Amino acid sequence: MSKGRQLKPSELEKLLKKGKITQSTFDSYYSLSLSVQQQIYEETWTKGDTARTIFILIFIIAIIVLVIDSCSTSDNYDDMTPEAWLEFDAKSWEDYKALYQTHNNLINHAEAFGNGQISILEFYNKCKEFKSWFGNASLSYSYGENKVERDYLDLYKSVAIADGQGVQYIIESVDSNKFSDASEANERISTAKDFMGLIILSRYALLKKAGLTEEEITAKVDSESAALDAA
């Protein structure tokens, strides 16, 4: 099964040596509060898949380093007020909710098909709808006005692309009766779920730029995530 390439610690060190990131940027990951680090640990390690967990943790470190490093580059985000950051967060969160709900809708239809609740034709046609939706979504996250926003929205695009690839494999599996395609579909959809977790994590850094305290950020993210799950 195909996966995204793992970013090894040695590769991060090479970025540091080449001057792509600064030592302070590299070390800044560790400035995250212990509460956030514990949340990352609990939400990943308890999944029980050690190899997958290690990959996720390494990728999380890379994302945080790159997001924070992007803040040190020359761009127009210095002119943004806390209100502007909150406005961007509100807009992108609406996109996240649509992405999250469509991803879960895909999972629900796959489970319904597996349980015999819907026919293969109904599932097949629904997958074509999902393919179109994810394809359009992947092209819609272009409203970032600075590097921080664009890097953040790239995660949204990655979710849409991964889910779209998963749906395409499902369609090909039905067309060709190749169960290997179904296995690839599951891998892509799982990757999309991992990227959604990274969006939530990266949102902490975004809201910090809006001037929120760690307590306010945690309360906001937790309450809005809970409301999304309850919807």
Question: Key features?
Answer:
mainly alpha, 2 domains, elongated, 231 residues
What does this structure look like?
Helices cover 77% and strands 0% of the residues. With 231 residues, the chain is mostly helical. It folds into two domains: 73 residues, no CATH class; 150 residues. Helix 4 runs parallel beside helix 8. The two termini are 33 Å apart.
Briefly say what this structure is.
This protein is mostly helical and 231 residues long.
SSE layout and pairing:
Blueprint: H1 9-17, H2 23-28, H3 34-45, H4 50-70, H5 82-114, H6 120-138, H7 147-176, H8 179-209, H9 214-230
In round numbers, the mean pLDDT is 78
Helix content: over 70%
Beta percentage is: under 5%
**Class based on secondary structure composition and strand pairing:** mainly alpha
Strand segment tally:
0
Uncertain runs: 1-9, 24-48
Distance between the termini: 33 Å
Largest sheet geometry: none
Number of H/I helices: 9
Using only C-alpha atoms, the radius of gyration works out to: 19 Å
| Broad shape | elongated
Order of helices and strands: HHHHHHHHH
Quickly count the domains: 2
